[in-house]
Specification:
By secondary structure, the protein is an alpha+beta fold. 57% of the residues lie in helices and 15% in strands. The chain has two domains: 102 residues, Ribosome-recycling factor (Topoisomerase I, Chain A, domain 4, Orthogonal Bundle), CATH 1.10.132; 68 residues, Gyrase A, domain 2, CATH 3.30.1360.
């Protein structure tokens, strides 16, 4: 019983960690290196994450800087950023790339809020699926006489409390991210 509950809680935590990772890639109008995390660059025929090709740093609130270790990859990095459809236009000086982060329009902010809500809803669905799986395992254990009906009820209550707690965490994360996105 304890292993089923512990496994469910661990999986719920992983779902929330995944949500945080997805939301870190959503633009808020401020420069953050996480914006470029999902970008892959064609490097000698291999799709390579941008982070592995150079230093990505925040110059100021509205500018990112990329310093590739291999200067021959600069044009490929610029192309990858433009193809990523993030609304960013990189500027190269031959050795470094600057990526100005334009301010978000009201419409774009609303689109990002919708996107974050979709990520949040997907995470809530994942958490509820974890609850369902855990409850099925518990019922199977009770059916196999590995636990009593009272223990099953107690375990289901624990799983439900964990589910409610994790969904509350998702709501808090979303509220914070939406506020960050709508901040001008």
């Amino acid at each position: 019983m304890d292993t089923i509950i512990k496994d469910a809680k661990t999986r719920m935590e992983k779902s929330i960690d995944n949500l945080r990772g997805e939301l870190s890639k959503v633009r808020t109008g401020k420069a953050t290196t996480a914006i470029l995390d999902g970008i892959k660059v064609d490097y000698y025929g291999t799709s390579t994450p941008l982070k592995q090709l150079g230093n990505v740093t925040v110059l100021d609130v509205h500018t990112l800087a990329i310093t590739p270790w291999d200067k021959t990859v600069i044009s490929s990095v610029e192309k990858a950023i433009m193809v990523a459809d993030l609304g960013l236009n990189p500027i190269s000086d031959g050795t470094n790339i600057k990526v100005p982060i334009p301010p978000l329009t009201e419409e774009r902010r609303k689109d990002f809020v919708k996107l974050t809500r979709k990520f949040g809803e997907d995470t809530k669905v994942a958490i509820r699926n974890i609850r369902r799986d855990a409850n099925e395992h518990l019922k199977k254990a009770e059916k196999d006489k590995k636990m009593t009906e009272d223990e099953l009820k107690k375990a289901e209550d624990i799983i439900q409390k964990a589910t409610n707690e994790h969904i509350g965490i998702v709501d808090d994360i979303l509220k914070h991210k939406e506020k960050e996105i709508m901040e001008v």
